[in-house]
Design goal:
By secondary structure, this protein is α+β, with helices and mostly antiparallel strands. The chain has a domain of about 120 residues: 3-Layer(aba) Sandwich (Aminopeptidase). The protein is built from five helices and eight strands; from the N terminus they run E-E-H-H-H-E-E-E-H-E-H-E-E.
Length: about 180
Amino acid sequence: MTLDMVVLPEGHIAAGRFTLRPARRSDAGLIAFYSGDRRVAEGTQSIPHPLPPGAAEGFVARAMACQAGSGKADEDIWVMDGSASGLAEVLGVIGLKRMDRGQSEIAYWVAAAFWNTGLASEAVRALVAANPQKNCTIFAEVFQDNPGSARVLTNCGFEYLGDAESFSVARNALVPTWTYIRKLD
């Protein structure tokens, strides 16, 4: 075995400077701290701002229940864990929400302290390469006022599909989005 051949536990995905791994209870504090940042919450569809008490614990419990299931959960969620390379134990979160016909939607957020460091691109690239749900197509949607997330997708081989709008819980409003597609044939 060479030094670059590392065996990871089941459910873990190597992603460059960090590992994508299943959520665990101890992640709740950092997830609450990072996702409680208005800038992070407003970049997502589902994170409220301000973050209500217990929301991070509830998110972690749901993520853990999905990974403990039989692979039939609606969504698979991974934590970006940089602890093996001297980074934070939680850098962000990435997930794949199942659709029909071998398709999923990818969504991610990175803690503001780690923005513009390439972590989101590494996470998306690693998850697409691993293709844990055996997808033939992955979709993504980003808010139009977040061009950084759009660059992540195009850098990872996603192609622009069109404009739409989605509701943002943190903004309590419909927000214009760009939709992207990545075929994995």
